[in-house]
């Protein structure tokens, strides 16, 4: 009897501790108002706060600066340069003595001055450079590439958020199943305890119910941890602070009939458009490398002011032996490549290989997108069938549970049958929830396959 009393005391203490913890969690949750988050709210929050989406927008902004960089190559460049030079030892030049009145001799004479200072302005303008023209044509494609890539990033964020959102809901549904089961089991256990106290039930039946309660409590704790982890994952994908409490409304998970018409045009999918823009950029890259075969022509003009003398020319005068003069130059520079050791040809062929690889990626991506749609439609159809079956199975399991519980209370069924019916009901409800999750995940994939993920934010 002492052992039995000890078991009863431990069970009651465990239950009391569980209820106290539950009450504490509820009080804590009430201190910070929970945000009611719909799927639309979650998606829009993620697009505003998630780092991936923000970085994609910055890439679009940065593309404008990249375009400006390319355009700058077609504009003139102007620079101001200055220098000062001191020559400790002047170079001696061998000059005919005729210049110095000594014919037939050679005289070593220094040329230049100890100090030289030059300041000038130089202008350079490219008149013909095929690589610059190609870069200007590629500028618009560069902007379009980053815009399409930003849209792809948005869709990836939406897909991750929607998937995590539904996973949180299903885990909460599983938690609700265990809460309901715990409440029902506790009611039966209290009935058995009352019968035991009146000598109408066996001690072993009461102990088995207490053990079952503890098992359900342990399962609930595991699911509760899973809910918390899934919520944290959802908040991470949203870019939301992890400590923010959230609530998901049940209305988000109604079964909707999605039209599965003909296979959508994969060439309109963002994944496909990104590769096509990338292909255009690789084509321009190839043309830019081919531009090395073309001659280049540029204009240069300069104006300079030079000071020379035996001392630092700055602020010095002719009376100090320092003289200042100006000079100007205008010129055309023509560069004609003749032979580069086959380096240019190798670069062009490498670019061509990259272009061909991208063409293969485009073909493979189109097939993958078509397959994605077909698989999503198949999964939707299978999930709908499974949901109907599992819904009927839950109904039957509930009827078996109610009948068995009634029979047990009337002494017409053993406790084993009651526990088995309870486990079967839990399994049926969990299977139904799993079927719902499969359906919602397939729904996301079907929306994605149809290129309509953006509609989830509207």
TrEMBL record:
InterPro entries: OMP_efflux, TolC-like. Residues 348-438 form a coiled coil. It comes from the Bacteria. GO terms for cellular component: cell outer membrane; efflux pump complex. The keyword Cytoplasm does not apply. The keyword Iron does not apply. Keywords: Cell outer membrane, Coiled coil, Membrane, Signal, Transmembrane, Transmembrane beta strand, Transport. Residues 1-29 form the signal peptide. It is found in: Cell outer membrane. SUPFAM superfamilies: Outer membrane efflux proteins (OEP). Pfam families: OEP. GO terms for molecular function: efflux transmembrane transporter activity; porin activity. Belongs to the outer membrane factor (OMF) (TC 1.B.17) family. This is Transporter.
